[in-house]
Each structure stands twice: as structure tokens, then as C-alpha cells.
Amino acid sequence: MAPQARFDLASDASGHEHLADLQLAREGFIEQMKRLSHPQPIASRGRVAYGAQHILDKRIACAFDVGCWTGHDVIHPIKGPPRNRIREMPVPRIDPRKPDWRQVRRAAMALRRGEVIAIPTDTVYGLAANPFDRRAVGRVFRLKRRPETKPILLLIDDWRRLLPLVSRVPPGLLVLARKFWPGPLTLILPASPLVPDIITAGTGNVAVRCPRSAFIQALSRSLRAPVTGTSANLSGCPAATTAQEVLRQFGGRLCYVVDGGRAASRQVSTIVDLTAEPRIVRPGAVPRRALEPYLR
Fold it and tell me: I need a labelling partner for 259 at 20 to 30 A (CA). Which of 11, 158, 193, 219 fits?
């Protein structure tokens, strides 16, 4: 098996490290987020998921609170609620190390529509949503029964996706990213104004991780944006390590579950705060003794 590419930074002709132009990166990022912030309704199982733009009278749309398709049955303003809300949960099987590009595109299209799906990561299963769609992120909180005062971490594919998310680059970021990314290390960084408050929970900081998962990296590239990576479990319950455990906890309330087999470990990612003096916030898959030399 070919060695996995390491998280690295660009270098100039003299060999000195440098960061890409933040302003140019953010301008392109803003244009992409404008498209992602307005999920598109779709046809599903032979019928249309009704959105506000399908209804001529906007007052009716507002009265019945119909918006984009969110992966669950919606109430039609004329026909009323569907007779049967129970549906079969799709569970496509993938190889997280060599994902099928068709499955990646399907997952990316679901996130663009504002849906929430469960995906395998390099640690435990997580709930993926478009972080720039407030309704989708709010649904993640409701599914997990998680208070909105707790932030949600983001998963990225490489450092170019990181730059628009941070307002400044802390000194320890480059060293830790080179050593432990891709991998099970989450870094808390100063958030840029582009990151929604519902993601940061009003803290002004954003938690970011570059996972060692070919599927998630391909998903982020296809979406051209980060994805949420909070663990797929109800608050207070153990993190799910198989697709079956996800189904037992959430039932049919998700759009679908991507089955990547059993997780290699039940350990969650280690969280390190770099917004001030570097410190370990939550122990996890990366042991403390491996991090301490880089936190001094």
C-alpha cells in the first residue's frame, strides 16, 4: 500500500515555508460558501421534497415552515403529512481506504442539500453536515440532544482548507500539523469571521482536524469545504464504532449511514488548545507523552 501523504505546507524557491495569501483563499472560500449556504431541494424516492421555492405563496411556505429537504419527511402545505413516516435506512458499504468516487459524490450532494449523514472516520463514526448551513448544523444538535453551547469540530482534507477558517496562525500549529496530521489530533484555533457562530458556540475559536481517512478527505474535496465531525452518538452515550451502533442510537432519523466497517479504535481524537498557552483539553488517541515535547 502506498504511503499516505503527510500534511505539509508550500515552500518558496529559497526553501522557506510560507502560507498562501489568506485574502485570496478567503475570497474564493466566500464564493463557495454562498452556494453551500442555500441547500437545493431534490426528488427522492420518486417524489419531490418540497421547498419554499416550489410554493407560489411564500406566506404558505413560512406558515408551514417548509424549507430545504433535510433527510426526513416534510409536511406538504396542501396534502399534509405523509401517511407513513417510517422508511428504510440506506446503508451503503465502502472501503474507507479506497472509497468509490460515486459514493463520495453521493455523500457530498447530500451535504449540499442540507442533510445529515453518518460517516466512518479514522477514530469513531461521526455526523457529517455542511457547517455553513445553519439548519443542517441545528439538526445535528437536535439529533445528538447536544446543547448549542458546545462547539462542533470540523474535518478538512488539507491545509488549504484550513487557512480561511482561522484568523491567525498560532506558533505551535505548523509543528503539530506536520507531526500528527493526518491523524486523530484536533486543534482549537482562533476562528475567522467566516466560521458560523453555531459551529464555534460563540467562543471565537474553531476546532479543526485533518483525519487519516481517504473517504473524508475525498468528501471534503468534493464539497470544497470542511464537514462537521462530531461523534455519532447521543450525548452521554458511548461513541459508535460500527454502522449498526449508529442505527441503534439514531434509527431512521438520519439521511443515511455510510458503512465503513468497524472502527479501528473506540478512542476519540485528542484535543489541544492553541489559542493561548498550548494545553491538552481532552485526552484521546494521541497519547500525552507523544504531545508533550511539542507543547513546551
Answer: 158
